[in-house]
Structures are given as C-alpha cells and as structure tokens.
Amino acid sequence: MKRIGVLTSGGDAPGMNAAIRAVTRTGIAAGLEVMGVRCGYAGLISGELIPLGARDVGGIIERGGTMLESARCLEFETEEGRRKAIATLRSKGVDALIVIGGNGSQAGAWSLYKMGIPLVGIASTIDNDLVGSDITIGVDTAMNTALDAIDRLKTTASSHHRAFLVEVMGKGCGYLALMVGIAGGAEVIAIPEASCTPEEIALGLRSAYDRGKKFAIAVIAEGIKHKTSDIAAYFKEHRERIGFDLRVTILGHVQRGGSPGAFDRLLATRMGAKAVEALVEGKQGVLVGLLKGEMALTPLEKVAYQKKPLDLGLLELARILAR
Ligand code: F6P
What residue segments make up the domains of the chain, in order of their start? Predict the structure, then answer.
C-alpha cells in the first residue's frame, strides 16, 4: 500500500477537519502518500482528488465543516456510480480509502468494500446513531451549540412566562434531543423512539406551570411523528384551553456549524490515527469508533443499515428531573 485516499461524506460534523488532519499526518508518518477526495462520493465519481501534504492540513483543526467539502450523492447509490468511483481510485493509483461520515456514508463504504476496495470508515455524524461508536465526531459540539441556544431561550422565556418548543436535529434518532433536553433542563422531551402527541406535549408543559414554574421548554427531535409546525398549529388552535403562549425555535443546521470543541478535536484525531494504523496493519472493511473509552474496530457489515439503540431509561430520568 503506497497511496491512500480520504473523503468526508453526508452531513458535515464539527471535527471532520481534525480527522482529515490526523489521517494526512499519520499517513505521511507511516510513509504513505495521501490524497483528499473533494465532495465525498460525488468527487470520487468525477475524479476530484488533490494531494494532501502536512502543510495542506495546517490551521484546520479549529475549523468547523470540512476542507474537503461534502455531498449527498444519489449516483453513488447505483452500482454504475460505484463502478465509476472504483475506476477513479484505480486510475489515480489509490490503494485504500478512508471514509469519514455517518450512516449513509458507511453503508456506501460497505458496498465499495464488497466490490473489492480496501477501506476503513470513521464514525462521524452529529446524530450519534451509528453502531460501533458510543459517540461520533461532532455530537459533543452540536450538543453544546444547542445548549447555548436553549440557555438563551430560557432567559427570554422567563421574562414573558412563555413556553418554547425547540426542535433539534437527529434525523430518525432522538439522541441529540434526549441529551440536550436533560442537560438543558427541559420540561418535555419528544423523540422518535417514544411517540408523543401534541396534546401530551401541551399537558407536559401545562403541568410545569401548574407546579409553579414561570416558563417551560419542550425539546423536540426533528424525526418525531408530528411535525413541529403541526404542534405549533395545535397550540394556536387550543390556546385558550392550554392557557399559555408558545414560541417555536428550529435550531436546524446551526447545530452542525461552528468550531469543534476539545472533545471532538481529540476524538477525531484519535480516530484518524487509528484508521491509518488499521490500514497499515491490513485491517479493512471496519469502522473506527470509540467503545468504552477505547478506539475500536467494528466490521462494516455490522454497522451498515443499522441504528444504535437509545437508552430510554434516560427519558424517565428526564421526567423526574423536570419536577
Ligand atoms: O445526518 C446529519 C443531519 O444533520 C441530520 O440530523 C439531518 O436530518 C440531516 O443531516 C440534514 O441533512 P441536509 O444537511 O442534507 O439537509
């Protein structure tokens, strides 16, 4: 193995740059040439590769986003698209690939591996839904970003005795909402794993006022059955009966932006180094993750198309803490 490629795919996550930097510099230290693939699998198909030297990845560890840029690539989901990607790797002399990304990206990596490409994945997504890593790159920073917003909302909510609905990202996974809800002291948490109606949300917030609270916060995962706009409409329709005003804040992509915190920089650095080590040792078709505090390799076969289960006991704890 002489030359490796590295790409970032799917939704970006704060810390991806730290992983690119670690892959590049540990790769060079191991005597390898490193090529960066621009725009994820789309760049692999169109052949957009750039050589990465130690200086090319300077000054990026503190930057959010990804210097290689990212994309969601429908063409790569077809066998023809993957064949084009493989042709690029062959023509550029790339012997092995490192894929930094979340669920969809690692499913793509698994397909490519099955077609004969030596590769290793790195667990990176703010959703924290990947099997094979207790926590993924970007989660910690995204949680802190959401918490900062909730802390700010609480000050204005208290001034007006209002309730706030705060929607956080997470696709079909409630991890971000659950953790941010607990850490932000939310009165109500609604996640896809435990369904909840607009009326139940209203009752949860109402009972907070009944217990003497001056304001109340509901943290809602974007993937729950009822859309945030539908919940807001329900509150409007039943305003008199519910008895308080509701305001809605959708945090959206704000959670993916900004500078990665110390945890994500270190996690991504360890994962990048581990991915290169794995390739050098001939370990392929695996995802690098953090399990019980240690770097661990999990076969992509066990990762692809799976969703990490959530500890629903924490939802009950959140209810008790919201008293
Ligand atoms: O997977 C990360 C994520 O931010 C999800 O939480 C969200 O549902 C999705 O990506 C948004 O994707 P896009 O940036 O393509 O709109």
Answer: 3-138+260-303, 139-256
